[in-house]
Amino acid sequence: ALAFLTHFDTKRVVAPLRLFEIAAAGGFMLAERGEGQATEFFDEDREIVCFGDAAECRRKIDHYLARPKARLEIRAAAQARLMTSGYLCGPRLEQMIEIYRDIQAGMHEEI
Question: Which residues is 6 bridged to in the sheet?
Fold first, then answer.
């Protein structure tokens, strides 16, 4: 599965939610490399495969199509990373609720 970074007018680059969806579904990820965004969450060549341009993307597609065992290992590692690193929605929502509660508690203390 391919994952491309989102580029904003402000020159900000954001890793897409698709990175987590691909890992959750047990897919093999081939993601655009840029500013370390995809590799901020997954280890390159162990849990995710990245490319910098169209030629590198094509080379990696050919390489991994010929190596099904390597694809299986990488996708299993990505899925394991997803499960152990708190990247799932439930843990993220719990973190957001905790932050909200802390903010609310701080507001009441100031009043």
Answer: 14
Tell me the H-state helices in the chain.
18-24, 54-65, 68-84, 89-110
Q: Please state the pTM of the whole predicted model.
A: 0.70
**How deeply is 86 buried, as exposed, middle or buried, from its count of CB atoms within 10 A (0-12, 13-18, 19+)?**
exposed
Give the residue from 48, 17, 43, 45 showing the smallest Cα distance to 31: 48
Eight-state DSSP code of residue 29: P
Burial class for 101, CB neighbours closer than 10 Å (0-12, 13-18, 19+): exposed
Q: What is the pLDDT of residues 1-35, one digit of tens each?
A: 988 877 666 666 566 778 888 988 899 999 988 76
